[in-house]
Amino acid sequence: MFDLSGKSALVTAAGQGIGFASAVALARAGARVFATDINEAAFAALKQADARIEPFRLDVLSDADVSAARERTGAVDILFNCAGIVHAGAILDCPPEDLAFALQLNVTAAYRTIRAYLPGMLEKGGGSIINMASVASSVKAVPNRFAYSASKAAVIGLTKSVATDYVGRGIRCNAICPGTVQSPSLDERLRAQGDYEAAKAAFIARQPIGRIGKPEEIAALVVYLASDEAAYTTGQAHVIDGGWTM
Ligand code: NAD
């Protein structure tokens, strides 16, 4: 398996779902992991999952929090921007404040952490930045995901821009585009539709592989992209979706 010994990683939104699974997988691959979230209740479970995980509170919407995080961790080798939110609805269901919030959390937060951490990676001579996008983006049209798709498409653009500007200086920047993945917020979205079982069955029905993805399956891609074995990939939107877009 991939060996991340000697590397350090910062993960945002590591409190649950894909971020949690990724923090654990990065640590098990040998990295020193700074696992951050606004939900401090998750920290005990992170520490219990792997002693190499150092959790602390980081609100990715806050310049002050990101500066303090950078002070605390020093330069890192791996930055996984996992924070994001799903806004449900078409454009006519999306008032300006909802679009602004989706862009803040899904796009500007990654801009903020990259601006904080990229200079340290450049000083070290390299680093791997991984940004959480989605197949609901420029990859695939998904109904009732206006703000989500627009913002996740922007994540892919941001990723390609950073990748091309720093490819000659040891920096790789990739995006991950999952299909539907089991997580607490997915369960909330399914419950919000009224009939949880029916909503889940509909989500499964659109997956050619016949099931929803597991956070650990996305985490495995995060570990690969973080590793030196991925040295030849940058600027890509890596689709991992159970065949939804094949
Ligand atoms: P989730 O939505 O269940 O959990 C999100 C986490 O983000 C929570 O721990 C929450 O406390 C944290 N968070 C919220 N606001 C924050 C802030 N301001 N600063 C720091 N942390 C904050 O997890 P998930 O469903 O695994 O989603 C994680 C990422 O993966 C998101 O970017 C999401 O868009 C993306 N994604 C998820 C799916 C899916 O089906 N679950 C599919 C494609 C992409």
TrEMBL record:
Gene3D superfamilies linked to this entry: NAD(P)-binding Rossmann-like Domain (3.40.50.720)
Keywords: NAD, Oxidoreductase, Plasmid
Domain of life: Bacteria
InterPro entries referenced in this protein's UniProt entry, alphabetically: NAD(P)-bd_dom_sf, Sc_DH/Rdtase_CS, SDR_DHRS6-like, SDR_fam
A Pfam short name: adh_short_C2
GO terms assigned for molecular function: oxidoreductase activity
Family the UniProt entry places it in: Belongs to the short-chain dehydrogenases/reductases (SDR) family.
Protein name: NAD(P)-dependent oxidoreductase
Natural source organism: Chelatococcus daeguensis
